[in-house]
Amino acid sequence: MAEKEQFAILSKILKRFQAAGILDDLILIGSWCLYFYRLQPGSFEDLPAVRTLDVDFLIPRPQRSKKEVNVPAILEEFGFTPTYHGMSGLVVYDHPELRLEFLIPEIGKGTSRPVSVRNLHVNAQAIRYLNFLSDYTMVVDYQGVEVRIPEPAAFALHKLIVSSRRTKKEKKQKDLESAVGLLELLFENPQGKERVLSILKKLPPKWRKTILAVSEEHFSELNDLYTSS
Q1: Separation of alpha carbons 180 and 174, rounded Å
Q2: Would you list the DSSP string of 5-47?
Q3: What is the pLDDT of residues 86-127, one digit of tens each?
Q4: pLDDT at site 119
């Protein structure tokens, strides 16, 4: 199915989540952010088409709201079925054209078990590095639906750092393509470059070191900017 047809399904979910009063409590992350970036005025129109079935929603810590909504029942309205993923007990939601999953920032030593989000009746996979995405967000309006997504600069830096942890070559390559594509566009103007640098400098030293190690090979302009700042 083409990107636009897939997005039509996602759009219906977003509208339904907004009607239920929970969309503002979630952050859409992952490759579908590229679609929303392309909708914004500016230089992002050249970003590549989305090539994924995965729709990822980040539940920030602490949660923005404790409103109780039966999310699995909403997803069932659109033909999504719950599926156990792996042996951990994580539940993802499958549609013939999309797979929807909830994620949450990993804290402390982390856990291999999913985190129960009781008010939404879902569980979420805890993953490292997600918390800085929730620190840098923007809200985009799409046909009256207000969708919270990471800022492009934060998204790009996040893709660099997660690429260093990928074991599958294909996923690693997709992360790097997304990161470099966004950084190239951001570096076309001083404001974009400054925003990338500002976020990079606020990250923990270990995270910053990992990002710069990756960018040294794939986008050395970032290292030059950081060194000269």
Answers
A1: 10
A2: HHHHHHHHHHHHHHHHT-GGG-EEESTTHHHHHHHSSSSGGGS
A3: 777 899 999 999 999 999 998 877 667 899 999 999 999 999
A4: 94
Q: Report CA-CA distances (Å) from 216 to 122, 194, 210, 212, 221.
A: 39, 18, 10, 6, 8
> What Å distances lie between residue 104 and 63, 107, 113, 178, CA to CA?
10, 9, 12, 21
User: What is the token pair recorded at 226?
Assistant: 């950081």
Residues in the chain: 229
**Following CA atoms 111, 61, 91, 95 in sequence, which dihedral angle do they give, to the nearest 10 degrees?**
-140
Instruction: Show the DSSP H helices in 53-187 as ranges.
Output: 71-77, 131-135, 152-163, 169-186
2 residue type, one letter: A
Q: Which of 40, 44, 39 is nearest to 188 (CA)?
A: 44
Rounded to whole angstroms, the Cα distance separating 176 from 156 reads: 9
Token pair 């997709």 in the structure block, residue: 174
Q: Are 133 and 158 in contact (CB under 8 A)?
A: yes
For residue 185, what are the CA distances in angstroms to 37, 115, 132, 180, 196? 11, 36, 21, 9, 11
